Amino acid sequence: MLKIQNLQARIEEKEILNGINLEVKPGEVHAIMGPNGSGKSTLASVLAGREDYEVTGGSITFKGEDLLELAPEERAREGVFLAFQYPVEIPGVTTTNFLKTAVNQVREHNGLSKLDAVSFLKEMKAKMKLVEIDQSLLSRSLNEGFSGGEKKRNEIFQMAMLEPKLAILDETDSGLDIDALKIVANGVNKLKSEDNATIVVTHYQRLLDYIVPDFVHVLYKGKIVKSGGKELALELEEKGYDWIKEAVDTAEAV
Amino acid sequence: MSGALEEALIGNLGGDDLPLLQQFKEEARSEFIRKGLPKFREEEYKFTPIAKTLEKNFSFQSNNKKQEVDASTLEAVKIDPAAEINLFFINGVFSKEHSVIKDTDGLIIKDMKSASVENKEQVLAHFGKLHDEDSFTSLNTALTQDGSYIEVEKNASIETPVYIYHINTATEVEAYSFPRNLFIGNISSKVTVIEKTVTLGGNNAFLNSLNEIFVRENAHFNHIRIQNDTENAYEVTQSKVYQEDNSNYSSFTFTLSGGMIRNNLNIISDGQNCESNMYGLYLLNGKTHADNHTSVDHKQPNSYSNELYKGILDGKSRGVFNGKIYVRQEAQKTNAFQSNNNILLADSATLNTKPQLEIWADDVKCSHGCTSGQLDEEAIFYLQARGISKEKAMGMLLYAFANDVVEKLPTEAVKNYLDEIVSNRLNS
Fold it and tell me: In A, residues 61-80, which contact B (CB 8 Å cutoff)?
């Protein structure tokens, strides 16, 4: 589904990604871990098409298409979804209105008819249950004045509404207490299927107790330096990142 | 000092149809000749070279020929087809033929000509009482031929909105109008007045209107103005408001297109526990020049004023905002808030904004702020990341910005009307 080859990217003059290789197949959950500043969020942003980053080398194909050729909205319509680390507050636009526009633009792209008000509302009600989000929150301005937990839950709600093929969760767990974390993880798990894939970008192993990954990758200095199964996350939790950093730095020094 | 331009204005235009007010008019005429139009770079008109613009665009030859306008044209300019009170003024003169005034208990509506005969005492007690130094005040007084007289009786709460249309017919020649309106809201009354200016035809049109508005004790007065005119429309409008104890005046000014537009809104808050709201929205593109000057003068303790003007500027347009707040020494415990927020969509658009606070009292809460900038890139990306095109995303954000003002409108029909215009304009 997703194939990243030797991806290099920078912001302004600073190189952040230095040759990422990653393949994600339908039905899989990949966790990307790593110390702060290792390039995790950059990878998520580049996948979603944020313009601040310049891709200087390598390729990304998604469902056989060159993802880098597509505008952010085209990627979203093709099924890429980024749950933001810092969801943006947008005064004056209600979540409901915003999602109706988004869902219908995606449907239009996929040759489906627009949802009328009634069907849209029905769809919303069903998905609201999934992430335990309250109606009153959705009639308010998008993310404005929401707590951290409410913002993250709203991200997962949007994901539920848009039914992406590839969901990228960028530090969705950061700042959440355990109850909020469980709700968010539970929502993500319910949305999992044979046809879609998830990339979980996280600093902490805690989230992976609830969203169990098939693969864990460690990112350091803009490269994947170690990959393994879910047990790698536990090892990282126990030993921290220093042993990996040391191994990489030593290898570089030689 | 006046010159040839002023001589042409005062000499060729206007009429003598208001004998009751002859003395006011003659005094105003001398005053105008003495002062002339605002000079180039004069402080109050610093960014709006009105005299130069008028000189360049108008001949100021008399145009007393009565203009016929067909009913279907006027029907099309209506804000609410179902409205029961519609007053049409054509080139500043009341059109009895086209106006419809539903008989409403507690509401007196007349053209100024009739009112100056039938409601002589009330007219004399109010006309010119809010006179000020602006030369467009004396120009309007000198040249006005007609206008509307609206009085709401004590305790009358009028649910039917009053629509006033100022039509300038510039189909064959230049058009001029100098409507002079007198609005009186008596004790504990309530009314909503909506004004819209419309220019027909491709010649230039100049409108210099003046409203004197008296909001008596405990009365509510909503005042909506819509300027969505052609690029050959030039307007200087003035609204002078006087508020007494416990009264509420709310102004809503929408400047959506036109040539050069200057709006002066001056409120004297001369009572305790008054509330004054000033809302404005300007969506400018092309070469439209829109200048909103407002002032609120707090003279008594415990009153409140709130101002929110927002603007979106594109093309080579220019927006000017100047908001003055005066708090007199006696006006303790005044709460006065002001904000002016702008989005500039093009480098070629210009904005001049200036808050001016003069506070003599020591126990007050006053705040002001103005912003100007571009749309938030992060917000655009967020919407794009959900499948919304960049163009649509920008439209949604601009609409949300503008809707902040539209949603405050008290009349549903006007709100829907403006919502559609704003929404279409902003691609939302």
Answer: 71-73, 75-77
Give yes or no for a contact between B319 and B288, defined as CB atoms under 8 angstroms apart.
no
A87 touching B (Cβ < 8 Å)? yes
Q: Who among B382, B385, B403 is closest to A92 (CB)?
A: B403
DSSP B329: T
Q: Which residues contact B331 (CB under 8 A, 6 or more apart)?
A: B298, B299, B300, B301, B303, B360, B361, B364
CA angle B27, B32, B37 (to 5 degrees): 165
Contacts of residue B420, defined as CB under 8 A and 6 or more positions apart, other chains included, come to none
CA distance B18 to chain A (A): 49
User: Across all residues in chain B, what is the average pLDDT?
Assistant: 95
pLDDT digits (tens, 9 = 90+) for B181-205: 999 999 999 999 999 999 999 999 9
Q: Does A109 touch chain B (CB under 8 A)?
A: yes
- Complex ipTM above 0.85? yes
pLDDT at B2 over 80: no
Which of B428, B382, B379 is closest to A158 using CA atoms? B382
Q: Are the Cβ atoms of A88 and B379 closer than 8 angstroms?
A: yes
| 3-state secondary structure string across B210-252 | EEEEEECCCCEEEEEEEEECCCCEEEEEEEEEEECCCCEEEEE
Within 8 A of A99 by CB-CB distance, chain B residues are: 386
Distance CA B191, CA B184 (A): 10
Query: What is the three-class DSSP state of A243?
Result: helix
Structure tokens belonging to residue B225: 């103005």
pLDDT, tens digit, 9 for 90 and up, residues A73-99: 999 999 999 999 999 999 999 999 999
Which chain B residue is nearest to residue A71, measuring alpha carbons? B384
Mean pLDDT of A35-64: 94
Question: Do the chains contact at A101 and B392, CB–CB below 8 Å?
Answer: yes
Per DSSP, what are the bridge partners of residue B57? none
Residue A205, pLDDT score: 87
Residue B309 pLDDT > 70: yes
Which of A51, A84, A91 minimises the CB distance to B382? A84
Q: Note whether B396 contacts A: Cβ–Cβ < 8 A.
A: yes
Q: How confident is the model at residue B7 (pLDDT cuts 50, 70, 90)?
A: confident
Q: Name chain B contacts of A102, Cβ cutoff 8 Å.
A: 383, 386-388
